[in-house]
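testing teh design pipeline on a random one, pls ignore if ur not involved
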């Protein structure tokens, strides 16, 4: 089954694994030791991350190390960009509206002060 990046980051455990190994590669046992779930469950998360291309597991002697491949997160960033533009536009329009209201209130206050 082909998994995508969005499936990988949908789970908080997988996001935490990515966070842990983003700074430096860690061996599989170290990763598994940081969670209060079974090693089997952690291995399943690692498998999904590997299938999505977000991590690569390399063998070094008897140890297996997980390395982050965060380039794949660009897909998520690109998808989010469209919503960022949408909300920035909405917030800009809100700011203009609020300034207009404030300006009207200031003008009304000045008119009332004259009388």
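output:
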């Amino acid at each position: 089954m082909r998994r995508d990046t969005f499936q990988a980051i949908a789970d908080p455990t997988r996001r935490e694994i990515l966070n842990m190994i983003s700074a430096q590669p860690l061996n599989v046992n170290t990763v598994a030791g940081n969670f209060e779930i079974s090693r089997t469950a952690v291995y399943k998360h690692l498998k999904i991350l590997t299938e999505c291309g977000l991590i690569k597991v390399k063998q070094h002697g008897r140890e297996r190390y997980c390395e982050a491949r965060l380039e794949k997160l660009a897909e998520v960033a690109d998808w989010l960009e469209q919503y960022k533009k949408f909300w920035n536009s909405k917030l800009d329009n809100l700011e203009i509206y609020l300034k207009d209201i404030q300006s009207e209130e200031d003008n009304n206050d000045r008119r009332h002060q004259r009388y």
